[in-house]
């Protein structure tokens, strides 16, 4: 992926639906439009198109001439005691499209728990997470990305992601690495 300070001009090669940042509204980019990649972290691309930031899902990377990000390959018979660290690693591949730091290091994930599932070989994952600002329109998109990624893991039968705002997020919740990356 790219360095956060380097921007790359790209041409949209096919029509593709993206989400505007920070509202999360879907819009269609047409083939032939010019865009600039401002961030390529996790499994999505942040594009600047005509002054508007937009989020392109990694699965649609070919629309801008890029390869989809690689997925984590995990054995289907993963022992249950190895699932929690794998989920945390997976959450570290989820990014706020405006901030080049993953949601774990930003301090946005407040809780990760397991509950029994109807299938004895699987568990229900419950995650409480917050946003850097309560009015952020990308909250649902980030929560959906968390759901999509965690549901692909073996032994996960179901997931609930709760967006919570108590306690309110503050910079002190970020890891030291995140603070250094953001120059704080």
TrEMBL record:
SUPFAM superfamilies: Fe-S cluster assembly (FSCA) domain-like (SSF117916). Residues 87-161 form the MIP18 family-like domain. It holds the Pfam family FeS_assembly_P. InterPro entries: Fe-S_Maturation_MIP18, FeS_assembly_SufT_put, FSCA_dom_sf, MIP18-like. NCBIfam families: FeS_long_SufT. This is Fe-S cluster assembly protein SufT.
């Amino acid at each position: 992926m790219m360095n956060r300070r380097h921007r790359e001009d790209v041409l949209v090669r096919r029509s593709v639906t993206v989400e505007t940042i920070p509202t999360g509204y879907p819009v269609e980019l047409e083939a032939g439009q010019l865009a600039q990649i401002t961030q390529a972290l996790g499994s999505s691309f942040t594009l600047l198109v005509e002054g508007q930031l937009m989020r392109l899902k990694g699965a649609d990377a070919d629309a801008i001439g890029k390869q989809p990000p690689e997925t984590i390959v995990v054995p289907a018979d993963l022992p249950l005691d190895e699932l929690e660290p794998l989920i945390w690693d997976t959450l570290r591949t989820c990014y706020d499209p405006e901030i080049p730091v993953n949601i774990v290091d930003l301090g946005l994930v407040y809780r990760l728990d397991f509950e029994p599932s109807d299938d004895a070989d699987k568990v229900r994952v419950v995650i409480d997470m917050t946003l850097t600002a309560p009015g952020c329109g990308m909250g649902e998109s980030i929560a959906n990305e968390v759901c999509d990624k965690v549901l692909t893991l073996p032994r996960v039968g179901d997931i609930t992601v709760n967006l919570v705002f108590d306690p309110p997020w503050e910079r002190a919740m970020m890891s030291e690495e995140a603070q250094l990356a953001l120059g704080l």
